[in-house]
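Protocol step 4 of 6: structure prediction from sequence.
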Amino acid sequence: MKKTGEYVIFYLLVKNKNFIENLRFATNGCQDTVVVGSMFSAMTKDNDFDYAKKAIKKLYEKLGNMTTQQEICANILKARGQTNEYNQHLKTKNI
């Protein structure tokens, strides 16, 4: 994956250790990163972590063909979501 210096941080409000009650994100990325982050947030809010993992694949299906730059921006979110399981223990508040 091409390095761009951009980042995505997810902030989650988790209930019962597996239910995403609320999801927000922060990024210094381009508009494509913001759009993909917004779509992912809307898809995963009020769902469990298993659904959120599947939502990444569904998101890419909805996006369809992308330019190289759009794909790089979208992959920032994809990599963040897949590699660290959304930082479940570091960035969440269990209620």
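Step 5 (inspection) to follow. Strands lie at 8-15, 19-27, 47-48, 92-94.
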